[in-house]
Task: inverse folding
């Protein structure tokens, strides 16, 4: 069995597609017909078979292509991966977590064999078979965080916990929704969230920080976040704004279905055992409108959410310019009938 | 989210008297698997089934974080306490099955430090046992100053001296040896972080002197677990669950709430983590706040209580639980 990995691109000719099975497992983020911020955090426990929560670290058909795209980003801009000197131990924690979870969830693709400090890691999709000494940086081709996050889908922020706050002191960030690790590195939780509108007034960040600093080992948590992206581009970074910003002017009624993508982040939060840090994987899922509307419930609901989104949020998420075109296109798929409760398709 | 942490089923693999007051307990997983990795300074909460009563006491893990075949804790017998340490000393024997929590670290090393300066008093040595083991394995720079009443009560002093030699300084009260704190704090290299664990008088003294000598608050770390104190019994109404409960003399308010089948969140059970913070809806009487979480202003406001360590005296108390 195993996953059939797609050959596709997230740039230039944009050949990214979801297979029909992957459309149905898409983590649609709206459980009702409207959207407002909430501290929507829940325990990160294994979910139904065939969903993105089937394993706590999800590997899907885009794995190989995403790792190739990450390598291209890093070749152009090595600062997308940074780790302050005190974060190496946390990097080993993350390496252990990702190797264990990937090997556990996908034994046909990944194998981890441990003999004391002597570890052997086999990653079949990427053709890697390395033996190294856990804890000895000189035995890997990269630092531990960079090594394993070049082989794991999603961005990863490692947060140091001290002084009752969380500090963005290491990360691998190449598939981000318009924020920059190089800009945020070393900032604390309130500093890096400063640009988010409305949520501060609601006291959301204070409560969220209190929750996150109490995340316990063995009890990860998760939440969903979302935005929209024009073209299936993973790397929508501020550094490359000149490449993707202008895409937003290219949306027409004829190309909405192909160009406009819902971008959902499955964010999870894990306590790291040796360093007492927190790792924050941000896993990005993309789906184009043509794919999304194959599920009529999602089409109706997305229409209502985007139509009624508060102006500040639409601006923050960068939808303003093409929102009318998108709403008009979606409205044709919304007959006004009710939607069933919950996230999943009917 | 559910209360507390994930639980571990363990068996007591060894019980070792260390000196006249302290006994060490070793735990292994009942299924033979490895225990979770932890970081120096972490504690576990041990569940004790003492007849009708369940006691939940936090103890620092004192083994090396590099060895997860077993966890070790050291328990100092407290003859005047509420009975948790006496239970461990009198009733817990090798082979006993117990439940402990996953490790939680509220006294973590700051890994940015260029040097770790550690001050321990009495049984406050236990978190430093794990932290020094962790640092030594990484070639970290640390220095430990350890005060104890007498040489024979210097729990693990011999082990530490043997492991780390001159990086460990011992001070014995009965020989009138005192840490020259001001000199010590004034002679540290830039980038040093200070850690203190011991009796509250010692913690207060060290924090005051560090502040007076210009140490930034972020570089001063302390472990301040207050054991719940016994006191006069009192009655409490839990408004949300619609229950009225009595808190016994030897019971904490949190334990009484749990015994009534209500499960507030908790982590440290020592008044520092803030998890069990509870709103006061109405009261007629006086609060006895013993926590280190609420501010003085919050204590005076009578609107919040930390049920893990604090008590109440008076006619009536209604809590939002």
Result:
């Amino acid at each position: 069995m195993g996953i059939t990995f797609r050959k596709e691109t997230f740039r230039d000719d944009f050949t990214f597609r979801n297979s029909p099975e992957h459309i149905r497992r898409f983590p649609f983020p709206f459980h009702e017909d409207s959207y407002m911020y909430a501290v929507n955090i829940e325990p990160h426990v294994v979910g139904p078979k065939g969903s993105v929560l089937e394993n706590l670290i999800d590997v899907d058909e885009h794995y190989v292509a995403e790792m190739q795209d990450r390598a291209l980003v890093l070749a152009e801009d090595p600062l997308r991966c940074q780790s302050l000197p005190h974060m190496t131990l946390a990097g080993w924690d993350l390496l252990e977590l990702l190797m264990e979870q990937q090997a556990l969830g996908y034994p046909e693709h990944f194998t981890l064999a441990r003999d004391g400090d002597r570890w052997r890691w086999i990653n079949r999709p990427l053709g890697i078979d390395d033996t190294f000494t856990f804890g000895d940086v000189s035995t890997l081709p990269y630092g531990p965080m960079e090594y394993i996050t070049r082989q794991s889908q999603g961005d990863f922020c490692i947060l140091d916990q001290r002084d009752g706050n969380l500090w963005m002191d290491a990360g691998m960030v190449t598939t981000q929704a318009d924020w920059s690790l190089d800009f945020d590195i070393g900032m604390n939780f309130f500093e890096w969230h400063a640009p988010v509108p409305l949520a501060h007034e609601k006291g959301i960040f204070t409560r969220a920080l209190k929750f996150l600093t109490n995340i316990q080992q063995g009890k990860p948590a998760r939440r969903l976040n979302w935005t929209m992206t024009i073209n299936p581009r993973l790397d929508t970074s501020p550094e490359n704004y000149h490449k993707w910003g202008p895409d937003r002017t290219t949306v027409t009624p004829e190309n909405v279905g192909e160009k406009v993508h819902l971008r959902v982040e499955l964010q999870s939060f894990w306590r790291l055992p040796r360093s007492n840090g927190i790792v924050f994987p941000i896993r990005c899922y993309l789906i184009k409108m043509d794919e999304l509307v194959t599920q009529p419930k999602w089409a109706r609901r997305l229409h209502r959410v985007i139509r009624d989104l508060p102006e500040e949020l639409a601006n923050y998420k960068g939808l303003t310019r093409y929102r009318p075109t998108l709403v008009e296109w979606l409205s044709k798929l919304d007959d006004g009938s009710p939607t069933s409760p919950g996230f999943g398709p009917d | 989210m559910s209360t507390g942490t994930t639980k571990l089923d363990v068996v007591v693999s060894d019980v070792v008297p260390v000196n006249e007051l302290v006994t060490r307990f070793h735990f292994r997983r009942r299924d033979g698997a490895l225990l979770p990795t932890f970081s120096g300074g972490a504690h576990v909460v041990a569940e004790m089934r003492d007849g009708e009563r369940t006691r939940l006491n936090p103890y620092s893990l004192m083994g090396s974080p590099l060895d997860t075949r077993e966890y070790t804790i050291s328990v100092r017998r407290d003859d005047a306490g509420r009975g948790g340490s006496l239970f461990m000393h009198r009733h817990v024997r090798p082979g006993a099955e117990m439940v402990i929590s996953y490790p939680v670290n509220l006294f973590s090393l700051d890994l940015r430090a260029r040097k770790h300066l550690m001050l321990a008093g009495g049984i406050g040595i236990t978190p430093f046992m794990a932290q020094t083991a962790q640092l030594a394995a990484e070639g970290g720079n640390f220095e430990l100053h350890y005060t104890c009443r007498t040489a024979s009560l210097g729990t693990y002093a011999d082990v530490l001296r043997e492991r780390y030699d001159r990086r460990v300084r011992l001070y014995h009260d009965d020989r009138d040896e005192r840490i020259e704190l001001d000199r010590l704090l004034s002679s540290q290299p830039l980038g040093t972080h200070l850690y203190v664990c011991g009796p509250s008088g010692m913690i207060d003294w060290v924090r005051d002197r560090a502040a007076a000598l210009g140490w930034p608050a972020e570089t001063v770390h302390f472990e301040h677990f207050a054991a719940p104190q016994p006191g006069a019994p009192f009655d409490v109404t839990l408004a949300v669950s619609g229950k009225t409960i009595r808190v016994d003399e030897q019971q904490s308010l949190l334990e009484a709430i749990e015994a009534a089948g209500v499960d507030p969140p908790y982590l440290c059970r020592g008044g520092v983590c803030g998890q069990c913070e509870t709103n006061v809806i109405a009261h007629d009487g006086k609060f006895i706040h013993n926590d280190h979480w609420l501010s003085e202003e919050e204590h005076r406001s009578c609107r919040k209580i930390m049920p893990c360590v604090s008590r109440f005296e008076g006619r009536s108390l209604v809590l939002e639980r």
